[in-house]
Structures are given as C-alpha cells and as structure tokens.
Amino acid sequence: MVTAYSVQITVLRGRDDQCRAVRALLDGVRDGGGGALLLHGEPGSGRSALLSYAHRYAKDCTVLGGAGLPEEATLPYAGLQRLLDPVLDRVADLPEPRRQLLRRAMDGESCPPERRLALSVAVLGLLAAAARERPLLATMDDVDRGDPQTAQVLAIVARRLRHLPAAILLTADATATVDGIAAHRLAPLGERDSIAVLTDRLPERPAAPVASTLAAVGGGNPQALVDLTEVLSPGQWRGEEPLPAAPPADGALARAYRARLDRLPPDTRRMLLLAALDESDDPATFVRAADAAGLAVEALTPAEAAGLVRVEPGGVTFTQPLARTMVAAGAPLAKRRAAHRLLAEVLDPDGQRLLRAMHLAAATAGADPALADELERAAAGGRDGWAVASAALCRAAALSDRPSVAAARLLAAARYAWTAGQPGQAQLLLDRLRATCADPTVAGHAGLLRGELQLRCDDAAGAAATLLSAARTVAGADRAVAMEALARAGEAVCFAGDQYRYAEVGRRAAALRLPNDPPAVELTGCLVTGVAATLRGDHERAGPALRRAVVLGGRLAGPALTPTALTCAAAAGLVVAVDGAAHRLAERAVGLARERGELSMLSRALELRAVAEYWLGRHEAAAETSRDGLRVARVTGQFNCANVHLGMLAVLAAVRADRETSLRRIREIGPTPTPGSRPHALAGWALAVLDLVDGRHAEAAARLASLARLGTGRGQVLVQVMATPYLVEAAAHLPHRPAATAALAAFDRWASSTASPLRRALSARCHALLAPRGGVEAEREFRTALRLHPTEDGAFERARTELLFGQELRRSRRPRDARGHLHQARETFTLLGADRWAEQATAELRAAGESVGPPDLPAARLLTGQQLRIAQLVAEGATNREIAARMFLSTRTVDHHLRNVFHRLGIRSRTELARTFAAEPHAGLASDR
Q1: For residue 865, what pLDDT band results from cuts at 50, 70 and 90?
Q2: Residue 181 contacts by C-beta under 8 Å, 6 or more apart in sequence?
C-alpha cells in the first residue's frame, strides 16, 4: 500500500469561497457585528474540515463546539446542553425567569412550544454574556442529525446576532436549509482540485491518467479521495494494476453512509441496493426486480425522508453524487451478487443483452470463458455506448482463461474508452497491457492507440516515433492498421513542425500500397503520398493522389465509412484546395462521429471543418465550429486539439481585427506552446495580423517569416502557406523582402497546381503588392485578382483586394478610380461586421477626397440573420429575457448581439431601433437569410 504523508493537511482544496465566507463572518464578529452561516453538503464534502478551519481562524475568540448525534436525536436539547456546557457558569448573569427556563432545558426537561422563543432569548443572553470579554464563535456540526429542538433554538438565535460580537456556524446535509441564515452549498470538487487533494496526501504526483481516473472515482468528494489514497497499492498508483471502481468499503466515507443506512428498515436497504445497481434507465426494470424480491416501491419512503433518494414516476434518483456508489460499495458481497443476479433475471436477454451480461459478470467469481464471450459479443460496436462497452470488455478480460484472449479484450477496451472520449482510462488500460502482454501483434495495435493518445492529448513530438514503431510491428499482419499508423505519424510530424520527417512516412506508405487495396486503405495511402509530395514541392504528383483521396472519401460506404476515413479525405481536400468538397467531407465526419458517439474523432473533424470554412470565407461559421471543437477537446482531454482550436479562434479574431478576443485566445493556449508546433504557429499568425492592422509591418513580416524555414522542412510550412497573403502584405511596406518573395514562390507553385480560383486570386493580389507602385504590373495583377475571386464565397478576401487596390490607386494619384473599389470594400466589410476594416476603407475614401457618412444601406443588409431577428423582436417591444426564451439563447448573448446592432445601425436606444424598422417596412424580408 502507498504510504501517505503524516503531516497535517490544512489547505482546503476547492473551498476558497467557503473559507472567505468564514473569514468574513469572524472578521465581522471582531468588529462587533455578529452573524451566522450554514455550510451544507453531502457526507465527506468537507463540512467538518471547514469547522476546523473556522476554529483555527478564531484563535482570539471564545470557541464553543458541538455536534448533532443521532444517538441523542430523541433527547430534547441534548446537543444544546453539550454546546453550552463550557459557559453555563454565566447563567447567573441572566434574569431569573430566563435562568430557570434555560436550566430546565439543560436538565432534559421539555420546553412548551409557546416558551421556545423565551428559551432562545435566554440562550442568546448566555452567548452575549460569554462574549463580553472576547468575541465568541459557536459551531454545531451535523446540526440536522441531532435532536430537532437544538436545531430550532440555534436557528432562532442565529437570526438575532446582528448587534453582538458572536457568530454561529452550522453544518448540515446537502438538502438541509435554515430560513434567514446565509448558506453555502459544498459542491463536488472539480478535477484539478480533486487531483490536488490526492497529491497532497501522497509522496509523489501520480501519472495523469491515474490521477484523472481516481478523481472521477472520487466524484469530487474530498473524503472519498482521501479514502482512496489510503488503499492504493504501488502498482495501482503507477497504473500497472486495475484502479478501484469505488471508494473503499471500509473508509471513512463508507462508514458515514453505512451509519445512515443502518438506521433504515431492512426492506428499504434492499430496495436501495437494487436501485443503486440498476443502470437500465428503465423504471419498469426496477419495479420488476422489486416484485421478484417480494418488495414494494413504498419501502423506499424512509430513504426518501432521509434525503437519500427521490422517487418519481420516471424512476429512483439518488440525490447526492456518490450516494449510489456508496450504497453499492457498502453492501455485503453476497447481497450485492444476489441483487445483480436478480436484476439479470428480469432484463430482456435480447433488448438488454449487454446490461444483462454485465449483471451476470458482477455476480460471478473466477474465470468464466462462456460469459466472457457473451460480454464481448454484446459489447461489439459500442451499441450501448462506448464507455459501457469498454467496461464490459474489461470485465470480459478478467473472466477470460487465456492470457492472449484477455490481452486482446483489454486492448479493445482501451480503444473503446478512447472512442468514448476517456483518454485517461484508455491510457491506464494500455499501461496494464504493456505490463502483462508479450504478443507483438497486440503490442503493435496498442502502439497505434498509444501514439494517437500522445498526438491528441500529450506529446505530439514523441507520437511520431510511437506510431512509426507500431506501423513497423503490424505491417506484416495488418496493412490497414499499419497505413493508419503512418497517416497518424504524418499528422504528428506536421503538428510538431517536423515536416522534413514526412519523407520517411511517405516512403514507408508507398512500400505498403498495393494496386487492389480496399477503398479505406487506398484513401489513407493517397493522403500520405499526396501530402509527402506537397511538402517536397512536387505538386504534379501530389494533386492526383490527393484528389483521388477526396473522390474515395465521397464513395465510402458500409464498414469503410468511418469518421477517421472521412477526416483523412477532408484533410486531402484542404491540401489540394477543393474547399467545398473538404467541407462536405468534414461535415459528414462530424455528423457521423456525433451519431456514433465517437468523441475521440469529433474534435479533429471540427478542426478540419473550421479550416474549410476559413477558406470558404465563412469566418463566423468557422469561429463557431472552432468553439464547438474547443468544448469537445476539453471535455475529452485532448489538450493538443484544444490548443489548435484556440489558435484558429485567435487567427479568426485577428483577421476581423478583434484584438481583445484574439489575445484572450492566445493567453488560453498558455505561456509555453512548443516552439514550431501548430498552436504556436497559429498564435504567431494571429499576432502578426494584429501587427499588420496596427501598421507594424516589420514586426508582422518577421513573425510570419519565422513560422517555417522553407527548404529545410522545419516549422509550420502549411500554416505559413495559409498566412502568405498577410506576409506579402506586410512585406510590401518594407525595402527588403526576401522571405516574402520565397514564401510567395512556394504559394504560387501550390496555387497554380490547384483548381482554386481563390488561391489564384490571392496569388495575383500578392504579386500586385510586390510590383512597383503605380506601375502597369500592379494594376494588371489587382484586376486579375478581382476577376478570379469567387462570387459565391470569399466576400471578405475580395473586399480586402478591393481595399488594397483602392489604396494603390489613391496613392498613385488616381483618387477617382480608387473610390469605386473603396466603396465596394467598405460596403462588404460593413455587411460582414468587419468594422475595423470598414473604418480603414472609410479613411481611404476620405483621403481620396470624398466626404463619407454612414453606409447608405437598409438595416436588413447591415445585420446578420440572428442580429436582424433580435432587432425585429426589440422593435416589436420584446424584452431581452423574452427574446432569449424565444430564440433559445442566453440573455447575455442577446445583450451582446443588441450592442452590435446599435453600433452597426448608428443608434443608441430601443426607441430609435423601433423607428428605424418602422421606416423600413420590408426590413423583415431578410430575417431568414
């Protein structure tokens, strides 16, 4: 067993708000003003620890401490007697009638209900007498578990301490409240604080997957986490042995729950155990199990009265996060197995096959190969959820009688856990597998999964070596898996900025390919071949391979149709610049991942969709997609994916000249993204765009030139290609621009190999910017760019070209020619909500000699669809709260949109908005655009 530190832990993790409330209460007492506070939460949530904290903070006060004892719950005022005993010598300071009333209550005599206020005043007087010399703190732990008379008196007293140097601090169960007293609910700890509680009590920090899993097992309950640290073995702490599925049955938390359960009737405890073990989400299952056990649902009434459960038509709900777990963990093994067998008997063997097999497995000791086979068959494909299937396969591995079969099932359990978005659990299972499995094929498949976890969640630079090794191990037995490992290795070297290593990936993929490969394998091979050719500048070879991957992606069907295959095809589409097809493939991958619950691939699919939307000029859609991807990445522990989405959000905000949002997103990436990595490059691109917006051209060019070192394959070559138009724009203001010229040459070779009008338009714009000012070449290239710009997508980039062309014409002393382009740019930027760029266009128009007022556009054209709908509802008289309810938005979001509406329309009030829409009766026609 791991030995915990013996030092006293005084830091209360995750309880900063409650500690501040306690300090504020006691500081007020020292200043002569009393008060009271109730701290309530589930058992083990830290209520007693907060009382100890209060006692330490009140070292200059008189402290009275008591606790509600269930054994004395039938003795009136027993708790009050124990609390006040140290100051009962002050009873002589009270008037005779109150003195007698208090003494009778302290002697165990009852107090008539009509005299309870008088008794409370007597207690108040006694506390006032005790507080004359020093401020006083009285605490009562578990006030709801002792005699109710004490709780009633303390509540009355607590509401009358305002002008006394005395405070009362109470703790109670999560469901308890006291009218008129400020209360703080002790919510479960978050993962970070849970891990801190674990590491506070152990000699070394555990591996991240171990800590995350234990934090989840502890359910955010501090006592559960402490109990877990006291039973872990060294092998468990290192992740080499299975971790506990619940806090220990002999721990302090389990004892606290057991004490509560022991006060309930036997039939109630049996019903609670059935409810705790029933995971069917079908109330009929629980009812059938209760009937089979000869029990009635009414037997749960005492548990409901005790606040353990809520019994509703939809089923039985445990009111506290860990109550279900502790009820099950605290039951004797024989009773737990009997309950599992009972539940298995009432489940449908066809419709509830996996759940039935899980109950049978939980009731089984030792190996049972037949049951293990049934678990594996029932879990196949994750039909009942990938996390459940992973747990089933773990149990199947434990029931297996052959080590090789058990290893294969553990590997499948790890992949299912990863698919469910549980990388910590997947890593733990892989670590167990590595410690026990000698089969090279299983080890190779495990290497693919381990490398994927590194790529998405941890060490992307190290992932490439892991994946290349896995591909080498399985190449002879499973070419499809080997090809997938190579594709992931290629992704890893690109993420880390080591594109020069992609050549090896490409060579190994070429050696694996066969003419008759299945579509999914051919698709992956085409992607790797095409990217490798692109990175070495061989676009003639790259284009056909990448376009073939896109075509194959569109034809996928049956078992070959997976989010992984679709993302490969989408990535190929982006490299070969078929943005619409890439977007459709990424969109399909997103939908399929959501439909199948494959959370591990969802963030990557959203990343590719966001990039496609960027190239299509749909910046708002790209930002929303990236925000969605960021949420998914964070929930599923994909640190690297989260940082890519943050980088993309920073770029999108910078492109729209939203400095505050861009810098905030960069700060969220953290202070130390790996230099050369994709998040680092995206952050640099965003900062460079902000420099460009502010006229710091040298700084912008230097940042963008540093994204990659062309010719060496180091750095983020693909990101620099995307950012080349901004590099050229910045360098156009500098006397020396070799980096921009080299980057543009690379961009030209890529753009000319594609069929993308947008890429060719951007290339022409870049050449215009580098051409001699005022010359024929610059004008010709600008006009070529405008002719090539797509009409359906890419309005933002076309407007940028109009603005830059207008600037060129104005500075060449052709203001009349410049105005048309500047007007077009200004109108487009206004429609897109790119206010800073619209301001630049306005400034250029004024410099061209034109007096410019607000854009002469109807409200419907100035607003986005959602802004327009909100504006219409405001004009009709709806409040922000009513609008939020009708549009399924938060009031904060409505406030944000309304501020933008006012800004775009140049108005200041809801009244002006109503007048605007009254003057434009057809404004609403565009509300659904």
Answers
A1: low
A2: 36, 37, 38, 155, 158, 159, 170
Q: Which pLDDT score is estimated for 270?
A: 94
CATH code of 902's domain: 1.10.10.10
Half-sphere exposure of 913 (CA within 13 A, CB side): 24
For 178, 264, 880, 893, the CA distances from 899, given in Å and listed in that order, are: 42, 58, 12, 10
Residue indicated by tokens 């410690």: 435
Note the pLDDT of residue 432. Answer: 86
Residue 63's CATH number = 3.40.50.300
Radius of gyration of the chain from its Cα atoms, rounded to whole angstroms: 34
Among 144-158, 677-691, 838-852, name the one with the lowest average pLDDT: 838-852
Which of 431-445, 507-521, 746-760, 768-782 is the least confident region? 431-445
* Phi and psi angles of residue 67, each rounded to the nearest 5 degrees, phi first: -150, 145
- d(C-alpha 860, C-alpha 864), whole Å: 8
In a domain, 107, yes or no: yes
Beta-carbon count within 10 A of 163 CB? 10
- Give one DSSP letter per residue of 827-855, joined into a string: HHHHHHT-HHHHHHHHHHHHHTT----S-
Whether 774 is covered by a domain: the verdict is: no
In one letter, which amino acid is 537? G
pLDDT category at 859 given cuts 50, 70, 90 is low
Average of per-residue pLDDT across 376-385:
91
Q: With the CA atoms of 486, 488, 491 and 497 taken in that order, what torsion angle do they form, in degrees rounded to the nearest 10? A: -80
1 within domain boundaries: no
Distance CA 237, CA 221 (A): 19
| Lookup: tokens for 906 | 């140049």
Burial of 736 (0-12, 13-18, 19+ CB in 10 A): exposed
Tokens standing for 518? 């299945």
Q: How far is CA 177 from the centre of its chain?
A: 32
For the chain, what's the residue count?
929
| pLDDT number for residue 853 | 59
Give 266's contacts (C-beta < 8 A, 6+ positions apart). none
Task: For residue 89, give both structure tokens.
Answer: 């010598």
Contact criterion met (CB below 8 Å) for 456 and 679 = no
Q: How far apart are CA 247 and CA 258, in angstroms?
A: 13
Q: Within this chain, do residues 244 and 279 fall inside the same structural domain, yes or no?
A: no
Tell me: the pLDDT tens digits for 804-832?
Answer: 999 889 888 888 888 999 999 998 888 88
pLDDT at residue 7 above 60?
A: no
316 and 427 part of one domain: yes
Counted domains in the chain: 4
* Domain boundary, last residue among 137, 154, 185: 185
What confidence category does residue 924 fall into, taking pLDDT thresholds of 50, 70 and 90? Answer: very low
Whole-angstrom Cα distance, residue 603 to residue 625?
10
Q: Residue type for 505, please?
A: V
Q: 241 and 350: one domain?
A: no
Q: What is the mean pLDDT of the chain?
A: 88
130 and 240, same structural domain?
Answer: no
Helix %, strand %, coil % of the chain (to 5): 70, 5, 25
Which residue, of 498, 527, 559, is where some domain finishes?
Answer: 498
Domain that holds residue 889: 859-926
Confidence of residue 313 (pLDDT cuts 50, 70, 90): confident
Token pair for residue 757?
């009008």
Bridge-partner residues for 170, per DSSP? 38, 140
Helix (H) or strand (E) holding 340: helix 333-346
Retrieve residue 284's tokens. 């009929």
Could you give the CA distance from residue 136 to residue 67 in angstroms, rounded to a whole number?
17
Q: What is the pTM of this model?
A: 0.78
Asked if 244 and 300 sit in the same domain, the reply is no
Same domain, 171 and 217: no
Question: How many CB atoms lie under 10 A from the CB of residue 366?
Answer: 7
Do residue 431 and residue 342 come from a single domain? yes
